Structures are given as structure tokens and as C-alpha cells.
């Protein structure tokens, strides 16, 4: 019989292994992409389903709120999961596979960034959003798991959590969010000091 303490130790080991396997240069590249978007005034859109929808909302909130100081430019960032009236209307009328793509039609411009969060990398609505963003000359980034799915070959850049466990993948994606937000808190604060 598995004890709670055995399960906790096993889960933490799997999570630690997945984090250790992440290529730091991929995370650095996403940081550079977001930094360029910030300074160019480009918009960042974040999407995901289920637990990844929660991470998309969390990432958008953190980048919008936790990176700002007084009298400074703010990230133009939006989670496409958060307008439930629009999301359900699009799902009802155009199919759930189009809920993100159809929002991007009104919003995305060349030079903008789409961050697609998907453990499997095979969610039809996420794939259609990536395809559309690519067609509009936006940059596409995937936070992915398992084998990366179809999204791995569609995005410009991917951060791949090499695990077959949804919980571990979703936890790792949230850790990546916090790493990036903390980085921007520090880097943008330093820039404000230099400008004084």
C-alpha cells in the first residue's frame, strides 16, 4: 500500500526531474521575446484549456500586474480564456475549436506574441490559434508537455516539459510563469533606476 508520504516524495521527485530537464535557453528565449514585445508595445495573448486555461489567466494577470511600477509602460497582455460570454458565444455558434482563433481575428497584429499552453500540444482550438497567429506574422510560443504534440512543430519557440503526467506538466508551466514574472520585475525595476 502506498503511503501519503511515499506519494508526496514520488510526486516531488517527478516534478523536480521535469524542471531539471527544461532547457534554460528556451526559457531565456521566451524572456527575450516578451522583453522585445514589451518595448515595441506589442500585445501578448495567452491561451489554454482546463488547467492550462487557469495558467493562461494567471500568466496574463502576473505580467499585467506584478511587473509594473509607478509611471512606467505596462505589458499589453490578455488571456483569451477570460471573457466567458464571448468564449461561450463563439463555442456555441462557431464550435469550440474556434474559440481562440476567432478572438485573434479582431486582435492580433504582426509582431504580437501568442503563448499557447497545452500539456498534450494537440488541442484543436489551441492549434487553430497558433495557425492563425502564424498567418498574421505574430510570434508563437508553446508551453508544452508529453511529446509536444502537433503544436511543437507549429510554434516558433517551445518550452517542452518532458513528462507524461498532466499534473507535473501543469505545475511546471506555472513555475515557468513565476520565473519569467520575477525576472521582469527585477529587469524592469533596474531599467527604471537607470532612467532616473
Describe the structure.
The chain has helices spanning 4-20, 24-40, 51-65, 84-94, 99-107, 124-135, 151-154, 166-195; strands at residues 43-48, 76-79, 113-118, 139-144, 157-160. Strands 2-1-3-4-5 form a 5-stranded parallel sheet, sandwiched between helices. The protein is built from 8 helices and 5 strands; from the N terminus they run ααβαβααβαβαβα. The mean pLDDT is 95. The radius of gyration is 17 Å and the shape is globular. It starts with a helix and ends with a helix. The chain has a single domain (4-195), classed as 3-Layer(aba) Sandwich (Rossmann fold), CATH 3.40.50.10490. With 196 residues, it is of the alpha/beta class. 59% of the residues lie in helices and 13% in strands.
Quick rundown:
Helices cover 59% and strands 13% of the residues. It has 196 residues and is of the alpha/beta class.
Note the topology.
Blueprint lengths: L3 H17 L3 H17 L2 E6 L2 H15 L10 E4 L4 H11 L4 H9 L5 E6 L5 H12 L3 E6 L6 H4 L2 E4 L5 H30 L1
Parallel strand pairs: 1-2, 1-3, 3-4, 4-5
Helix pairs in contact: 1-8, 2-8, 3-8, 4-5, 5-6
How far apart are the termini?
62 Å
Assigned CATH superfamily: Glucose-6-phosphate isomerase like protein, domain 1
Which descriptor suits the 3D outline?
Answer: globular
Note poorly predicted spans.
none
Number of helices: 8
Name the strands of the widest sheet in spatial order: 2-1-3-4-5
Which class do the helix and strand fractions yield? Answer: alpha/beta
Cα-atom radius of gyration: 17 Å
Mean pLDDT: 95
Biggest pleated sheet: 5 strands, parallel
Amino acid at each position: 500500500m502506498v503511503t501519503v508520504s511515499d506519494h508526496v516524495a514520488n510526486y516531488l521527485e517527478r516534478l523536480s526531474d521535469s524542471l531539471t530537464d527544461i532547457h534554460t535557453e528556451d526559457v531565456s528565449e521566451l524572456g527575450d521575446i516578451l522583453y522585445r514585445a514589451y518595448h515595441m508595445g506589442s500585445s501578448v495573448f495567452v491561451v489554454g484549456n482546463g488547467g492550462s486555461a487557469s495558467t493562461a489567466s494567471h500568466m496574463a494577470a502576473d505580467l499585467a500586474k506584478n511587473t509594473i511600477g509607478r509611471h512606467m509602460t505596462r505589458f499589453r497582455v490578455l488571456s483569451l480564456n477570460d471573457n466567458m460570454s464571448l468564449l461561450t458565444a463563439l463555442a456555441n455558434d462557431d464550435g469550440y475549436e474556434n474559440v481562440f482563433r476567432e478572438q485573434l481575428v479582431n486582435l492580433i497584429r504582426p509582431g504580437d506574441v501568442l503563448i499557447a499552453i497545452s500539456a498534450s500540444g494537440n488541442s484543436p482550438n489551441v492549434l487553430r490559434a497558433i495557425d492563425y497567429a502564424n498567418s498574421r506574422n505574430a510570434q508563437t510560443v508553446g508551453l508544452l508537455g508529453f511529446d509536444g504534440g502537433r503544436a511543437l512543430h507549429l510554434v516558433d519557440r517551445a518550452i517542452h516539459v518532458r513528462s507524461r503526467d498532466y499534473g507535473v506538466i501543469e505545475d511546471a508551466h506555472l513555475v515557468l510563469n513565476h520565473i519569467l514574472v520575477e525576472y521582469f520585475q527585477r529587469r524592469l525595476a533596474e531599467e527604471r533606476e537607470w532612467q532616473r
